[in-house]
């Protein structure tokens, strides 16, 4: 049940952001949905991974300030259901966008 709620909430956020931007810019929904999906997927990836660039930067700042060497974390990413949902939304919107603009290719 928790997974279903997460999927629905993620889709509502993605659809809401896409609709909100298209409402204020007076453009088509499909024009922004793919880019919103990419951005949201990247944000989820960034905030659910451990040991990346920002972690190393904080470790070096702490080490430089205090002189105490911190143990470095290995990069680790464990995808969750919100990541897979936004990835699926991105891929579906890419296919729909390519189909919609097929005459331009």
SSE series:
HHEHEH
Beginning-to-end CA distance, first to last residue: 42 Å
Structural class call reads mainly alpha
How many strands in all?
Answer: 2
In helices, the fraction of residues equals over 70%
The quaternary state of the protein chains shown equals single chain
Biggest sheet architecture: 2 strands, antiparallel
Radius of gyration: 19 Å
Low-confidence stretches: none
Number of helices: 4
How many structural domains are formed by the residues? Answer: 1
Beta percentage is under 5%
Biggest sheet: strands side by side, in what order?
Answer: 1-2
Averaged pLDDT: 85
Morphology: elongated
Explain this structure.
By secondary structure, the chain is mainly α. It has one domain (2-104). The protein is 74% helix and 4% strand. The protein is built from 4 helices and 2 strands, in the order ααβαβα. A two-stranded antiparallel ribbon has the order 1-2. Helix 2 (29-48) packs antiparallel against helix 4. The longest helix is centred in the N-terminal third of the chain and has 24 residues, at 2-25. The radius of gyration is 19 Å and the shape is elongated. The termini are far apart. The model has no long low-confidence stretch (mean pLDDT 85).
């Amino acid at each position: 049940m928790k997974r279903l709620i997460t999927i629905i909430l993620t889709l509502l956020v993605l659809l809401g952001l896409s609709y909100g931007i298209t409402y204020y810019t007076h453009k088509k929904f499909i024009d922004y949905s793919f880019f919103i999906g990419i951005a949201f997927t990247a944000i989820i990836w960034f905030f659910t991974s451990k040991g990346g660039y920002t972690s190393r930067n904080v470790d070096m700042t702490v080490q430089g300030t205090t002189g105490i060497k911190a143990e470095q974390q290995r990069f680790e990413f464990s995808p969750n259901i919100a990541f897979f949902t936004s990835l699926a939304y991105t891929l579906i919107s890419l296919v729909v966008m390519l189909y919609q603009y097929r005459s331009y290719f």
